[in-house]
TrEMBL record:
Organism: Pseudolysinimonas kribbensis
Species lineage: Bacteria, Bacillati, Actinomycetota, Actinomycetes, Micrococcales
Family matches, as SUPFAM superfamilies: Nucleotide-diphospho-sugar transferases
Name by which UniProt lists this protein: DUF2064 domain-containing protein
Length: 119
């Protein structure tokens, strides 16, 4: 089972290891986010207790999640750290990272419509 955050459109090659056959020594994949959360979580055998009760959207969510996985005896392999989009600064950074994307186009269009008209 793989959970991918919908607020991380710049996945690109970062997600590839999860989509290939998993090495025998990997029970879980963890993609940390810059804000302390995560953008991806993959587990070989789905089990809701691995994440149930972990507070989300906090700067220690990722650390707590990895701790829970390891406490369950899972061998966790990290994925690259990415920025998810939780605010405007994140959106600007992601749009710059993937300038040809729909995310960047939508941001540019929103910025144009929000700009004051020239007099």
């Amino acid at each position: 089972m793989v959970l991918v955050g919908m607020d991380t459109p710049q996945l690109g090659p970062a997600i590839r290891p999860v989509l290939r056959p998993w090495p025998d020594d990997v029970d879980a994949w963890f993609g940390p986010a810059l804000d302390g959360g995560f953008w991806a979580l993959g587990v070989r055998r789905p089990d809701g207790s691995l994440v149930r009760g972990i507070p989300m959207s906090r700067n220690d969510t990722g650390e707590r999640t990895v701790g829970r996985l390891r406490s369950a005896g899972l061998r966790v392999r990290p994925l690259p750290t990415l920025s998810d989009i939780d605010g405007i600064a994140d959106l600007v950074a992601v749009a710059r990272a993937i300038p040809a994307s729909r995310t960047a186009a939508a941001f540019a269009a929103a910025a144009r419509s929000a700009a004051p008209a020239a007099s």
